[in-house]
Specification:
The complex is a heterodimer of chains A (195) and B (150). Chain A is an alpha/beta fold and 195 residues long. Chain A contains six helices and five strands; from the N terminus they run αβαβαβαβαβα. A five-stranded parallel sheet of chain A has the order 1-5-4-2-3, with helices on both faces. Chain B is mainly α and 150 residues long. Chain B has one domain. In chain B, α1 runs antiparallel to α3 and α3 crosses α4. The chains are: A alpha/beta (195), B mainly alpha (150).
């Protein structure tokens, strides 16, 4: 016998189930696209991570996972395998550099580009831009014996030119080479001789 | 959704052009960074926006993300996802350049070469170029699934 109670279930199915199916059908391609993108992005990212660590490990220019980016500890560096920044060569105190300067026994070398040197440099310093090492080293070798003391400098602790020049000079035989890490701005600020 | 994209916008030749331009640009930009991660790390430091602990890891991994995303875009595999990754990277680059422009912080972007000398694009030019790239990338991402539907 047909009663309202008997009709309740079919009506519910008629009213709600098809709508629910339609919603699912509509969402299906979107969900599939999302899943596809998540999967592909994971593959590209995973591949990049693996290749990145692997090549960095074997590359001669590879760097450590954490660099030295605090200027309080010296010139900033990514700590590469072939890094020119060597802490033992660094002179951190400007007064120590002034003492060396006053002895007159060390050659001060400005590793900045020529234009910056011309705008002002430590008194008596010679210009030897790190980027022009190959062109200038022959003349330098003919003028200075490898036994001399050298102090290189550039424009501060965020500048690596003084370290890179020092490394190249040491490789050329000038073993008594050190780096004044605070460079010309601090020297000038202290009121020490410039020209 | 794709049926609503006008035929002029969804154009196979346009899509291919965008894929090649973006893909080659990202592959090219990644090469120097992969060879010289130390110099790239210094450029990231120069932005003055990233925590020191993350600079080296970013310098090691980001160039490869650029390289593989560009490569997949060029060869046409996973192109929709590659476009998404490139768009995220471009959004980060645009934000970083904009923040530094607003606060007057100068830096070398490191986008195409880690050599500081000889790189003469100003921050504004870089910003405009990255915005154009981002528009291309968004186009590729939106129209990317069209091929799969056909």
């Amino acid at each position: 016998m047909l009663t309202a109670k008997n009709f309740k279930m079919p009506l519910e199915v008629w009213n709600h189930q098809p709508a629910s199916h339609m919603e699912k059908d509509r969402r299906k391609p979107i969900m599939e696209r999302q899943n596809k993108i998540i999967k592909e992005v994971s593959i590209i990212t995973g591949l990049s991570i693996m290749a990145g660590f692997l090549i960095n490990y074997f590359s001669p220019n590879g760097i450590s996972y954490i660099g030295s980016w605090d200027t309080a500890s010296g010139v900033i560096t990514a700590k590469a395998k072939n890094d020119a920044v060597v802490r033992e060569r660094e002179i951190m105190d400007v007064k120590t550099v002034k003492q060396i300067f006053d002895t007159g026994k060390a050659v001060f070398i400005d590793a900045r580009p020529c234009k910056e040197y011309e705008n002002g440099h430590i008194k008596g310093a010679i210009s030897f831009p790190a980027a022009q090492f190959d062109e200038r080293i022959e003349i330098f070798l003919s003028n200075y014996p490898p036994s001399i003391s050298i102090v290189t400098y550039c424009s501060g602790r965020e500048c690596r030119d003084s370290h890179e020049l020092a490394q190249m000079l040491i490789d050329s035989g000038f073993s008594e080479t050190r780096v004044f890490i605070d460079g010309y701005p601090t020297w000038k600020k202290e009121g020490y001789p410039i020209e | 959704m794709n049926k609503r994209i006008p035929a002029l916008v969804w154009n196979r030749k346009l899509q291919l052009s965008f894929r090649l331009v973006l893909g080659i640009a990202f592959i090219y930009a990644s090469i120097h960074k992969i060879i010289y991660p130390g110099k790239f790390a210094q450029i990231i430091y120069g932005y003055g926006l990233f925590p020191c602990e993350l600079i080296n890891i970013t310098a090691i991994l980001l160039p490869f993300l650029e390289f593989f995303s560009g490569l997949f875009l060029v060869i046409g595999i996973y192109k929709e996802s590659a476009a998404l990754i490139i768009n995220i990277m471009l959004a980060v680059f645009i934000s970083a350049i904009s923040i530094n422009l607003i606060r007057g912080h100068e830096f070398d972007c490191g986008c195409f070469s880690v050599e500081i000398t000889g790189y003469d694009l100003s921050s504004v030019h870089l910003l405009l170029r990255d915005i154009v790239f981002l528009l291309m990338g968004v186009h590729l991402f939106i129209t990317g699934s069209k091929d799969d539907d056909n």
